[in-house]
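Shipment paperwork, digital attachment
Item: protein structure file
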Amino acid sequence: MSEAERNKNSKYNKIPLKEIHDIRLDFIKRFIDFIPLKGFPEDTEIHISHYSLLDIIIRVDKRKAYYYFFHGMEINEWKEAALYAYWILKLRPFVITDKRFITKKDVCFINESFVIHFIGYVLEKTGRIKHSTKYNESYRDLLEYSFRYRNFSIDSFVVLIESITTETLEQEYPDLNHYFS
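Attachment content:
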C-alpha cells in the first residue's frame, strides 16, 4: 500500500514494521559512519536509543499523514529531513559513552552535529545546495548553538531548513565560541 493510499482517510494507518525497521537501520548506519567524520575513532563506544528512534520514525510518519490528509500534499525530501532532524534534537537518541572523550565538547553536541550533517546530506542529494559547497564554520557553529539552546516549533524548524541554500552556507556569521569558554 502506498503512503498516499495509507493516509487518505481521517484514521491514521500505521507505518509498516518493515519500513520502520529499514529507516531505523539507515539512521544507525548513518550515525556510525558519521562518528569518524566528527573526529572520533571507529571504535568509539556509543549508545543508540532504539526506542527513541522508533518514536521519531512514527512521529515523522504521522506528520506526513497530517500533511497529506489536511493539505492534500506529500512532503518533499528536505521537509521530511527537517522533521527527522527536529525529533532527533528533541529526543536525542545518539550518545557517545566512551570514557576517553567525556571532557570533549563534541560529545555533548553529537545529536546537533549529526543533524547538521544529515540535513546537509539531504539538501545536497536533492540539489538544494551545490555538491562543492562547504559549510562555513561560523554557520555550523551558529546552527549547532541554536539547535542546542533555542526553542523551535516544528513548523518554524521546517521553514529554517527550507531556507538553507548554498549562499546561506557560504556567508560569514558572528563567532559564538565565547559562549563556550
